[in-house]
Amino acid sequence: MSAYRFPRLFVKGKKGKEYAKVVGDEVVFGEEGEYGKVPYEIPLEELVDLLEERAKVSFIVHIPNENKAILVPEGARVKVLRAVHTAVRGLPKEGEILEEGDVYATGLTGKGEIRKLRTLERGLVAMVHWEPYGGKDVYHLLLVPEDQARVLRARS
Fold first, then answer.
1. Which runs of E-coded beta strand occur in the chain?
2. Fewest 10 Å CB contacts: which of 51, 52, 57, 151?
3. First-residue to last-residue Cα distance in the chain
C-alpha cells in the first residue's frame, strides 16, 4: 500500500515552483503552464465569491493517489459547505460525488453533542479546504455540479 499524498492546488495566473497545463483530457505537471502551484490553505476568498457562490478564477485540484485532477473553471457554480466544530470527522475526499441528503461531516460541539451535517444538493467534491485557526476545526467543502467541473487524468 502506498503512502497517502495530500491533494495539490494550482490556480490560473499564479506563480509557483511547479505548474500545470491542460492538454485535452489530461493535466500535465512541470516547470511551465498557466496554473501555478499555491499552498492548499490559500484563503478561500481568493478562489470563490462567497456571496454569488461562483469560482473567481479557474483552478485545478490534483489528487495524486488517484492520478486524477479536477478542473473548476472561472464562473462555475460552487456551493460552499461549512463544518465548524470543536472536532470535525468523516469528511469526504476530493473527487467523491455527494447526493442530496448525504452526511458530509460529523461534528463535536462545545457541549459535547454530536452533529451530522447533510448536503442540500448533489455535486462533486472539488476541494476540502481547511483553515488553520486554533481552537476549532474549520473545513469548507467546495461542491460543484458535475456538469460544471472536469475530471481529468493527471500526468507528470
1. 8-12, 19-23, 26-30, 35-38, 48-49, 54-55, 59-63, 68-72, 79-85, 87-89, 97-98, 103-108, 114-118, 123-130, 137-144, 150-155
2. 51
3. 21
Residue 1 lies in a domain: no
Count Cα atoms within 13 angstroms, Cβ side, for 106: 5
- CATH number for 58: 2.40.50.100
The mean pLDDT of 72-94, rounded to a whole number, is: 92
Domain count, the chain: 1
- Asked if residue 120 is part of any domain, the answer here is yes
**pLDDT recorded at residue 5:** 82
CA atoms within 13 A on the CB side of 36: 8
Q: CA 144 to CA 62: how far, in whole Å?
A: 16
- Tell me if the pTM is above 0.85: yes
| Cα–Cα distance for residue pair 142/47, rounded to 1 Å | 10
Cell (9 digits) for 153: 487524468
Residues 22-64: pLDDT tens digits?
Answer: 999 999 999 999 999 999 989 999 999 999 999 999 999 999 9
